[in-house]
Amino acid sequence: MVAIILIIIIFQIITVTPTSLTEIQTKKFTKAICNETNFCQDYEITCERNKTIKINPLENASVQFSSEWQDPRNQKEINKLCN
Length: 83
Prior knowledge:
The chain is α+β, with helices and mostly antiparallel strands. Helix content is about 30%, strand content about 40%.
């Protein structure tokens, strides 16, 4: 009887994985990505363990700025995705 209970406990420890660990490793956010003509499109970016795994454009979330417009973000912020 004790052996059966011990086997059940060991099986549960081995097969149960914490969901919070997965949640911490995967993140989603939106970001505007602009091109050289100042056309900016919002994207939903999905990261897993600091790697970009998906970039999806958001519908009706774009803008064309004038040629004089300058992106207020610094270069590091513009280039940063998942790291």
